[in-house]
Amino acid sequence: MGKEHSAVSGALSESALEYTSIDSIGGTVSSLRSTFASGQTRSLDFRKQQLRALLKGMRAEKKALLDAVLLDLNKSTIETDMYEFSAVEFEIGLMLENMDKWARPQSSWLSMLQPAFLMSRSEVRKEPLGTVVIIGAWNYPIRLTLLPL
After folding, report:
1. Nearest residue to 132 via CA among 37, 55, 29
2. Dihedral through CA 92, CA 94, CA 95, CA 101, nearest 10?
3. Which of 60, 67, 71, 112 gets the most CB atoms within 10 Å of its CB?
4. pLDDT band at 137 (very low <50, low <70, confident <90, very high)
5. Which residues contact 116 (CB under 8 A, 6 or more apart)?
6. What is the pLDDT at residue 7?
7. What is the pLDDT of residues 19-55, one digit of tens each?
8. Can you list the pairs that 31-38 forms with residues at least 24 positions away whose Cβ atoms lie under 8 Å?
9. Rounded to whole angstroms, how far apart are CA atoms 4 and 10?
10. CA atoms of 92 and 98, how far apart (whole Å)
């Protein structure tokens, strides 16, 4: 497969692939959970910085990503760029633009739901709750793996 990669763009090679060993997954998950527990990932500034870094990395490796989808699925690079890559770029931009507004707490009067709570207010806070695993589908690998981030 290494020869095929080189024939497309030279951007990919079999020797560049590094597979995650099964034994290392537990340690990686533990590290991610402890980072979350430290509170480092909770701030909006941190999350925005992570999205900017993701966008920068995507743009830097765009050719390799498009070539990988071409080789794996025989999907046109134009289709991949339009329906996957551009969609993820758009969503990251939308998230960066609106994150402050979307993360604001929402409050409402409880009396609308229950007269017994006449002068009470409730507040819904949108906060991250922990780590997740994302399992992407094969048909749109870039879009369905990166959009949930």
Report:
1. 29
2. 170
3. 67
4. confident
5. none
6. 45
7. 889 999 999 999 999 999 999 999 999 999 999 999 9
8. 32/131, 33/130, 33/131, 36/128, 36/130, 36/131
9. 9
10. 10
